[in-house]
Known about the structure:
Elements: E1 3-8, E2 17-21, E3 29-31, E4 37-44, E5 47-56, E6 60-66, E7 88-96, E8 108-114, E9 120-126, E10 131-134, E11 137-143, E12 164-172, E13 182-199, E14 204-208, E15 218-222, H1 223-226, H2 231-240, E16 246-250, E17 258-262, E18 265-269, H3 277-292, E19 296-302, E20 304-306, E21 332-334, H4 340-359, E22 364-369, H5 387-393, H6 409-436, E23 441-447, H7 448-451, H8 460-463, E24 475-479, H9 481-485, H10 489-503, E25 510-514, H11 526-538, E26 543-547, H12 549-555, E27 557-562, E28 571-575, E29 585-589, E30 592-596, E31 602-606, E32 612-616, H13 624-636, E33 643-646, E34 666-670, E35 677-679, E36 681-684, E37 691-694, E38 704-707, E39 710-712, E40 716-718, E41 723-726, E42 735-739, E43 744-748, H14 757-761, E44 769-772
Parallel strand pairs: 15-16, 15-26, 16-19, 19-22, 22-23, 23-24, 24-25, 25-26, 28-33
Antiparallel strand pairs: 1-27, 2-14, 3-6, 4-5, 5-13, 6-12, 7-11, 7-13, 8-9, 8-12, 10-11, 17-18, 20-21, 29-32, 30-31, 32-44, 33-43, 34-42, 35-41, 36-37, 38-39, 38-42, 40-41, 43-44
Helix pairs in contact: 2-3, 3-4, 4-6
Amino acid sequence: xxxxxxxxxxxxxxxxxxxxxxxxxxxxxxxxxxxxxxxxxxxxxxxxxxxxxxxxxxxxxxxxxxxxxxxxxxxxxxxxxxxxxxxxxxxxxxxxxxxxxxxxxxxxxxxxxxxxxxxxxxxxxxxxxxxxxxxxxxxxxxxxxxxxxxxxxxxxxxxxxxxxxxxxxxxxxxxxxxxxxxxxxxxxxxxxxxxxxxxxxxxxxxxxxxxxxxxxxxxxxxxxxxxxxxxxxxxxxxxxxxxxxxxxxxxxxxxxxxxxxxxxxxxxxxxxxxxxxxxxxxxxxxxxxxxxxxxxxxxxxxxxxxxxxxxxxxxxxxxxxxxxxxxxxxxxxxxxxxxxxxxxxxxxxxxxxxxxxxxxxxxxxxxxxxxxxxxxxxxxxxxxxxxxxxxxxxxxxxxxxxxxxxxxxxxxxxxxxxxxxxxxxxxxxxxxxxxxxxxxxxxxxxxxxxxxxxxxxxxxxxxxxxxxxxxxxxxxxxxxxxxxxxxxxxxxxxxxxxxxxxxxxxxxxxxxxxxxxxxxxxxxxxxxxxxxxxxxxxxxxxxxxxxxxxxxxxxxxxxxxxxxxxxxxxxxxxxxxxxxxxxxxxxxxxxxxxxxxxxxxxxxxxxxxxxxxxxxxxxxxxxxxxxxxxxxxxxxxxxxxxxxxxxxxxxxxxxxxxxxxxxxxxxxxxxxxxxxxxxxxxxxxxxxxxxxxxxxxxxxxxxxxxxxxxxxxxxxxxxxxxxxxxxxxxxxxxxxxxxxxxxxxxxxxxxxxxxxxxxxxxxxxxxxxxxxxxx
Length: 775
């Protein structure tokens, strides 16, 4: 099987490129303040449309062009060119429900950059001054070598467009006054720029045109992260980066809903429909674009909503009444599975997105994303106590101050009941979807670190209920990005095992969502993400997704398949068949570069951090039966092709020769409260200068582990290749030690084995050279 490889591209270096016109419709973006909403879609090769909904007199949206492409993957980005003086932009402007071109606060082009002297500046160019036609239907021409700012041309100054960062067209509702008054309801408006053209010497930009080969992975992304870009740009990027199959698209928790004013705030509303107009327009285009490129869409809807706009009685609550708030800033909240109003709303939202998919001719995939009863991370309080939940649980309701640790029979019974309520809510949601689209494929997304938290072993009763067992859903989707980015691959493997054991979905009915990198400074985490994705493919998972497109673009994550031999060298986990005792010879070797000056001084550079061992196992051949066993073993290893275990007669344990290994023999490391896996090492020498030897082939049953000097009889396991995996990350500052016996991974040094029967009969031992393998 080919293996997955990747690199983080920060720029194009020889990859394909083409030319595009500056101000191409596909690459405009939008931005706006909460709680308003806007979106931009392309309607033709030379046209775009912005839809917006305004909730207050101070709401203002911007249609943005940036000199530097901050949103595309490095292999697909357009070049940075801040000089706009040699280009002329023309377009037809049409609008409705917005301030008109001829009004104060009408559509204005703001140009941000620096003047000819290098001082930061912003210029405000009234589009009406460059329009020909009416205030809602006009042709606008902007020659950036000769435009002026100001409400009236006579009042403004010349714009120096030679060093521009970005420019944007402002869009406002008819009632805009730069104030803070709430409108009685959402005010919808739109504008369309068509017949767009850019001419002049500066009108062309080089843009990446890389098309990566298919690599077997799919893309997961979310509307809350990419609402500002055109769907055409999003879907084309996914396809160009080699992702195929379905796009797992999280519809989000903060940008799809309609709002109504109440008591100085804004709350979710069904007035006028389910989805706000900009969201509906964006997703209709998104579905069409995916269909055109042969990509499917899994519509993902979670039980999470932006807290500021969520009705208070919809929220899960802890026993003291505290709402279930996530750690995002600003926070989101979790909806109570027991609240009929909240669950009915989710069903309507699901139906609205399914209708969009059907209209585009897509086969419907629907995901219930991370439904759970929230557990407060700081103290383990589980949020089962909102009014709707209290009513649903009835006599089963008891206090659970901390869901972690040992619970009473009554507390376990409450968790079981909570799981039943949760499972009933997800079943109703999926039944609604199948009522709208009978052929829909339903998916459940479970976040393993929460539902299988080793500190809260009983929480799965509520958050991975048996009511989810196959065939409740068509596909079980698993993700565990915290474990992945922390390098806790053993927990990933164990979590998948436990989830399958509990719910019973075969691997061909599973998807895996590999972790995402939240912050750009943590881009090194892509290594673990790629490894976890590759492992999912290798275990036969039906589809594996990378999460998510904005982070992939930000860090330049670029993956591909390498065909041919595995990156891990072939190794047979068997021991050399002959006992050689102390008669075998061993030769540790380093590689040191020595440069001698004319004065006799030396400069020494060590190429290897560890010695590489060579052995001659010939003295172990003591009989013709041994010779036959050696030849058979050599042939089975295909000469030097395959590795095996060899017991070093001089150094095979963590302690002194002849002694029994103890749990305090060698250092494993120091706990930090996060890291859960530590490699076995054998140290030679003392202090900081000690040479550390990585042990990858410990002898089964000989490993002993201690934390702060106390041996652990459980709570850890050998995850393979000498990696000790703790069930719970050791506390910060905990001293970890281990004792063990070990073998050396070796191979035959040559593809030829010379054994002469006559010389052997005369008492001469054959030469059987072995050489250590680096693992």
